[in-house]
């Protein structure tokens, strides 16, 4: 009898340790000892799965430095040696370094400043989408402009870096759902609901700064208004990813309740490690896990350690924290290069992502499959789900009667109403 119990225990233990899902590479292949061997293992992973980075601000720097005149910009050159890039602490990206960093898909930010809100934000955003498209076209030997999860995978298989557009800030819509639809048709596949300014329909993260809610008299926190909920509904219908980096905690909660599809944080880290309002609190991480979404970890030192210096280990602390609260299916990478001016030691530019994976590969908690999820599988899962939700809308749409169909443009009628409360 006792012997039988012992056998059961051993079998149980073997099952817990050994079962396929998560045998850590460090245990399974303990020959991975030298830095070169670890790098080789990382390179194999990143050849199999595209490394997807959620946010890069190069397009804004192209505007600032060369006024979007891409004939004056050589993306194939080493920008560390070319003025004015070489002088800027905000420049971390060129083609050679993206290739060295084994980036498989870059979500480029079509960002315009909040100062353009209610002015020329729509025009400037169009110009930023234009520069991303022209750049992808001009360097098509290395980049491929993509708009779907399938295109990301196939571009990566062909050895190209998939280039996709994300719009950073709801102010870019000019309070028009029609503009949202047109951004989608130009290739934009995510919209960050706010940047650093509230829109008339969504609060941004500065509302969560101490004293902020009472400081601005008459400013009441509301999260997402009715129009904001319609924006999310239309994004779900189109197949556009809802991005909650930069929004207030109340907006996060409202959006998570509203969206039928998983959402992302394209470039945010963990609030319980560094209490910047740009980071994601634990209660939201738990909701995100239910939603099926993803936090893509930002590398900005001030979001990592809350001060100007940070190391790879500090970034890994955020990744592990998000993993332990939300789960390994809900963490990714969104460094924010070219939009930050203090980067961690060892993660100075887009060539350095393999350093991060080489360090994680030493950690027995991180199996090969886990590392693939972090690199790109999680983003691809979220994006596929967003696409599926959109197809479900299409089938719902087709099942509606013609009269209901024609009333489907109620968004544009609502616009009058929106105008009223903006004024
Ligand atoms: C861009 O830089 C690369 C690498 O330095 C060089 O080979 C190429 O000729 C340059 N292209 C132009 C148009 O100057
Ligand atoms: C973060 O924590 C520090 C110290 O605990 C506090 O002074 C600061 O107000 C907090 N910041 C935010 C944004 O909550
Ligand atoms: C969540 O969404 C549902 C359906 O849209 C709505 O009825 C409910 O009031 C929302 N809950 C909260 C807490 O906003
Ligand atoms: C920055 O924060 C980290 C982590 O909290 C700490 O170890 C380090 O000493 C801080 N550095 C500075 C310059 O304040």
TrEMBL record:
Main location: membrane
Superkingdom assignment: Eukaryota
EC number: 3.4.13.19
Pfam families, A to Z: Peptidase_M19 (PF01244)
Segments passing through the bilayer: 389-411
Localization in the cell: Membrane
Entry membrane topology: Lipid-anchor; GPI-anchor
Cofactor(s) needed: Zn(2+)
Subunit structure: Homodimer; disulfide-linked.
Family indicated by similarity: Belongs to the metallo-dependent hydrolases superfamily. Peptidase M19 family.
Protein name as annotated: Dipeptidase
Organism: Orchesella dallaii
